[in-house]
Amino acid sequence: MRIPFCITLLAQAARELRALGLKFGQLTPTQLTSLRSLYGRHRLERDMSTLIAAELVGGWTSRQVTSLLKKHRLTGGWNLSSKPCV
After folding, report:
1. Is 60 exceeded by the pLDDT of residue 6?
2. Contacts within 8 Å (CB) and 24+ apart, 78-82
3. Residue 17: which residues within 8 A CB-CB, separation 6 or more?
4. pLDDT for 10-36, tens place per residue?
5. Rounded distance, CA 65 to CA 57, Å?
6. SS3 sequence, the chain?
7. How far apart, in whole angstroms, are the C-alpha atoms of residue 17 and residue 84?
8. How far is residue 45's CA from residue 16's CA, in Å, rounded to a whole number?
9. 74-81 contact pairs (CB < 8 A, 24+)
10. Closest CA to 75 of 57, 58, 52
11. 44-80: per-residue pLDDT in tens?
12. C-alpha angle 76/66/79, rounded to 5°?
């Protein structure tokens, strides 16, 4: 049985990302800095995650941005640089 070309291509891309020290679904240090900056700029906006997703390099969705903000403790609790989210 032959492995479909798209699966082979995906596996190759994953190997190349690992070789560069990158992991799928995780931010690079530059992206994390950008996320923090964008959060500071848009944190009071109603559609904050959508605005950040549009500007953050990497093709992130607003749902992924929401998860990243929580993961990096920018929302959903105490943030050392601002008041707690209510």
Report:
1. yes
2. 81/40, 82/43
3. 23, 24
4. 788 878 877 877 777 889 999 999 999
5. 11
6. CCCCHHHHHHHHHHHHHHHCCCCCCCCCHHHHHHHHHHHHHHCCCCCHHHHHHHHCCCCCCHHHHHHHHHHCCCCCCCECCECCCC
7. 36
8. 37
9. 74/35, 74/36, 74/39, 75/39, 75/43, 81/40
10. 52
11. 999 999 999 999 999 999 999 999 999 999 986 444 4
12. 35
Tokens of 19: 């070789």
* Distance in angstroms between the alpha carbons of the first and the last residue of the chain: 56
Rg (CA), the chain: 16
Cα 54 to Cα 59: distance, rounded to the nearest angstrom: 8
